[in-house]
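queue> pop job 88
queue> type: inverse folding (structure -> sequence)
queue> payload:
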């Protein structure tokens, strides 16, 4: 003990007052000294600091699980339980002296307060709440108050997602710490984990993650309140209650203040608050913490230090003795006293404790900490085994001890498994530190330390892997340090930043790599987009200068740059003036978005101008006036294709000059459709459907038909107006391309639709259909098809037709492919009967080139099936003769006779007497091919009997409609 002249100082004050630093400086000013610290972790930190100042040979470290004692050690750094109290050191200091009131360990600190002294100086460091108690128990003590270097402020409640950087979130159970750490990893990129149960090696590695800036958050137990010096700006409590080993209780203002005081180091201010499910702190508690005014400690935990080792019963009695000072309270039963009672009750050990030495050995064994925490029974059984070996053999057998170490020496498993093994090895490390318990103490101390180091490294790795996203945390650290991040986009579109693949760049949108949490994804995106700023700018410049050949549009209105979508078309003020919406991330900036939008608008405007050049010419032709200009704008609004029945009156109002002006622009006035043949090519058709779908406000755009087909199945379930926009007209079960329909109409105008006609080879060739398919098509166009059978006429070498223009029997005419029925350069359109060759023959530009539009038969025409030849019964054939053709019967064929099913065409035939020359004489009709009877079904319908038909002279005041199907015949009759 120190002499009567030794100085005793109580250095009191809140956290961040430099008390520990002051004590270390005072100790180093003496030849020898010892300092007791509350935690093994803090002891290791102080040891490393003094070693850096005085060298390893001058400093000893003494804790329950670690013993580093050089031969000439001058300064001893210890846990309070392990520190030597012989009074041989010049200086002695005890840190966190307010722990005298701790229910579990307080009796140890109280004993040091009452009995531990340095020869020349003793310092007790702690909270101001100990002032009155120290003054009463240590009258010679001098008091020095230290003021906090920085201020503490209350920050209220914050969500973890909004927790500021350099924060510590405090939990009071392992499960709570892990849950918070997992949440921090997802939302903030990662955190370090610090708990009192960690080994110094694991704890130091975790703290290094935080101190080095690899992570900005720390999740810890209340162990950080015991002197750990960390660079903390904010401390948040996830709970304000804790389990103290017996019950859940609220933390006192003093305990909260001890932890909150870790925020703000030296002269930098700090803050504290709550998070998660913790209720906001009351005004009284907040004021106590910020003003450092707490209730003084009235009683200290005490246990009798004067032990009687005569028997275990005497030892237990002295340990349970009551203090005689009202400031002291008997400590509750600790784990070592509970173990002593358990072992003393074992009959097999009673015979071994017959001397003071036996009882002292038993007490030393019972003080082995229960780091494993399995159960009191198992812990007592292990202690009984160790005591029995020590009592009988004088040592612990090496083979048994080796087996215990070997079972633990494994680094596989998860965090919980590694933590349990680490707790187990701490028990054996403590045993190895006891002097005289093992034969080769230095070997086993090294062996247990090596296992603990391996487990510590494995646990640190597991904690880091689970609670730290190194990719995100590294990017955030670089951003925080205001360093420029270099982003690289490889040929696969992968974005690599500082060696970390963070996602892909698809056009001007960043697609980050998959993450398990939305908060983590947000954090990663913030880091990546900050680095992608220059990349977006360079990419937009390259895109703006890219040729149109690198851009395209989809049938759903998407705009593509190579394989990446960079925008989409949206409805504009007019069908031919769509607008664009660029796909550009907001983080890329307004300049990039504007440049991409402008380039896309230029592309689609040029594409429309190129593919719809005939329409643009109509729009820009100032020579078009009056009705012609109005009709031209109707054609523009309809994107170049208008069914004639929708504008019949407008067409009728156009005079020959107006029509001629429109024909110069490639407009064709067909019987069924007004259209521009150049706009029926696949490329304009594809774009026309997109523009039409936009104008109609469709959610899903219909696709364009495959190019090159004359007929397709009739569209089903399509929006109204789809057929003409796709360049087809529905007729029956199929739809026929409108230009080929007009060619067919030219063929039909030369037929007698009143009396009936049959399909010729040209008609079938134009449509590329079989006879049955053609009959269905004609039905869709308004004709009636009457099916019949007749004897097939066999071809001869020379056949003279009955009359000019008479159709040959169907079975004798081979069906030609459409490509054979037209010149190689394209389709030669036939003038309608009411149009003169001088002004209506389409110019060469009107013929459709071979861009997939050349009519190709979708289904090859099949010859009419032959009827089986009837066989003469065998009994009717005389022996030696063969049946001739007349006896076998003629070969039959199927044919169709077509007549107009409506009234308009028949009326015009009746009124105009327009029967084509050579028709109606000897024409097969009806079943069996018989001609019609005079005055019958095919004759004129007049109330006053049969008359001769002649054309009515046209009125002078009204010109003949050149688009009338019978205009040519009328003109011919007029000339006659």
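queue> result:
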């Amino acid at each position: 003990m120190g002499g009567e002249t030794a100085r005793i100082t109580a250095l009191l004050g809140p956290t961040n007052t430099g008390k520990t630093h002051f004590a270390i400086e005072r100790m180093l000013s003496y030849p020898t000294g010892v300092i007791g610290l509350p935690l093994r972790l803090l002891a290791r930190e102080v040891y490393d600091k003094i070693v850096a100042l005085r060298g390893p040979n001058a400093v000893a470290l003494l804790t329950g699980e670690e013993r580093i004692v050089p031969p000439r050690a001058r300064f001893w750094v210890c846990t309070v339980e392990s520190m030597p109290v012989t009074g041989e050191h010049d200086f002695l200091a005890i840190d966190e002296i307010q722990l005298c009131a701790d229910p579990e360990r307080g009796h140890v600190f109280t004993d040091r307060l009452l009995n531990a002294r340095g020869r020349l100086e003793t310092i007790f460091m702690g909270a101001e709440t100990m002032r009155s108690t120290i003054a009463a128990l240590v009258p010679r003590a001098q008091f020095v108050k230290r003021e906090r270097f920085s201020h503490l402020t209350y920050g209220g409640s914050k969500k973890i997602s909004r927790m500021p950087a350099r924060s510590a979130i405090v939990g009071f159970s392992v499960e709570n710490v892990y849950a918070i750490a997992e949440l921090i990893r997802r939302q903030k990129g990662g955190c370090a984990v610090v708990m009192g149960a960690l080994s110094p090696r694991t704890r130091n590695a975790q703290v290094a993650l935080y101190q080095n800036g690899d992570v900005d958050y720390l999740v810890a137990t209340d162990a950080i309140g015991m002197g750990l010096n960390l660079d903390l700006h904010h401390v948040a409590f996830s709970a304000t209650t804790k389990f103290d080993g017996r019950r859940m209780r609220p933390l006192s203002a003093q305990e909260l203040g001890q932890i909150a005081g870790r925020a703000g180091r030296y002269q930098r201010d700090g803050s504290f608050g709550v998070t998660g499910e913790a209720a906001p702190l009351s005004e009284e508690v907040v004021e106590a913490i910020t003003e450092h005014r707490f209730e003084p400690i009235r009683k200290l935990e005490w246990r009798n230090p004067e032990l009687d080792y005569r028997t275990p019963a005497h030892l237990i009695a002295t340990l349970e003795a009551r203090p005689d000072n009202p400031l002291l309270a008997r400590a509750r039963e600790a784990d070592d006293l509970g173990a002593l009672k358990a072992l003393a009750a074992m009959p097999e050990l009673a015979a071994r404790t017959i001397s003071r030495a036996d009882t002292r050995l038993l007490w030393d064994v019972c003080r082995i900490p229960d780091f494993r925490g399995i159960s009191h029974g198992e812990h007592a059984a292990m202690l009984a085994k160790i005591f029995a070996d020590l009592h009988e053999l004088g040592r612990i057998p090496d083979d048994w001890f080796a087996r215990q170490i070997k079972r633990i020496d494994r680094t596989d498993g998860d965090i919980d498994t590694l933590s349990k093994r680490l707790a187990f090895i701490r028990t054996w490390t403590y045993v190895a530190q006891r002097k005289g318990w093992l034969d080769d103490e230095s070997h086993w101390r090294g062996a247990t330390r090596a296992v603990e180091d391996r487990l510590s490294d494995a646990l640190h790795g597991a904690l880091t892997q689970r609670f730290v996203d190194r990719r995100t945390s590294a990017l955030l650290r670089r951003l925080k340090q205001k360093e420029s991040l270099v982003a690289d986009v490889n040929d696969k579109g992968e974005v690599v930043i500082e060696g970390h693949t963070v996602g892909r760049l698809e056009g001007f949108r960043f697609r980050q790599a998959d993450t398990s949490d939305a908060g983590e994804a947000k954090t990663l995106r913030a880091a990546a987009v900050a680095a992608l700023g220059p990349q977006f700018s360079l990419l937009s410049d390259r895109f703006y200068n890219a040729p149109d050949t690198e851009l395209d549009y989809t049938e759903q209105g998407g705009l593509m740059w190579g394989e990446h979508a960079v925008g989409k078309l949206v409805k504009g003020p007019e069908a031919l003036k769509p607008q664009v919406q660029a796909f550009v991330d907001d983080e890329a900036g307004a300049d990039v978005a504007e440049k991409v939008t402008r380039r896309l608008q230029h592309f689609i405007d040029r594409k429309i101008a190129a593919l719809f050049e005939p329409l643009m010419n109509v729009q820009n032709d100032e020579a078009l006036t009056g009705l012609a200009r109005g009709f031209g704008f109707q054609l523009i609004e309809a994107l170049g294709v208008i069914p004639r029945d929708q504008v019949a009156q407008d067409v009728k109002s156009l005079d020959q000059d107006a029509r001629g002006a429109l024909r110069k622009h490639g407009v064709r006035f067909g019987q069924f459709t007004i259209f521009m043949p150049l706009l029926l090519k696949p490329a304009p058709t594809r774009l026309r459907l997109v523009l039409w779908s936009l104008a109609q406000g469709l959610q899903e755009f219909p696709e364009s038909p495959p190019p090159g087909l004359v007929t397709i199945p009739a569209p089903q379930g399509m929006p109204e107006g789809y057929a003409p926009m796709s360049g087809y007209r529905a007729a029956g079960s199929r739809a026929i391309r409108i230009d080929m329909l007009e060619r067919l109409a030219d063929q039909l105008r030369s037929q007698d639709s009143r009396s009936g006609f049959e399909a010729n080879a040209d008609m079938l060739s134009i449509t590329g259909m079989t006879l049955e398919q053609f009959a269905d098509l004609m039905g869709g166009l308004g004709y009636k098809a009457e099916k019949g059978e007749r004897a097939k006429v066999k071809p001869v070498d020379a056949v003279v037709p009955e009359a000019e223009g008479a159709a040959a029997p169907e079975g004798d005419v081979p069906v030609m492919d459409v490509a054979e029925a037209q010149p190689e350069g394209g389709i030669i359109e036939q003038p309608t009967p009411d149009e003169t060759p001088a002004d209506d023959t389409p110019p060469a530009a009107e013929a459709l080139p071979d861009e997939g539009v050349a009519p190709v038969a979708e289904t090859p025409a099949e010859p009419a099936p032959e009827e089986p030849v009837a066989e003469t019964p065998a009994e009717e054939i005389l022996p030696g003769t063969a049946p001739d053709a007349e006896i076998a019967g003629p070969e039959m064929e199927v044919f169709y006779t077509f007549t107009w099913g409506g009234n308009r065409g028949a009326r015009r035939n009746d009124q105009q007497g327009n029967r084509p020359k050579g028709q109606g004489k000897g024409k097969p009709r009806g079943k069996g091919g018989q001609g019609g009877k005079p005055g019958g079904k095919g004759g004129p319908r007049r109330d006053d009997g049969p008359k001769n038909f002649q054309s009515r002279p046209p009125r002078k005041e009204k010109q003949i409609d050149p688009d009338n199907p019978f205009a040519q015949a009328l003109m011919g009759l007029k000339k006659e």
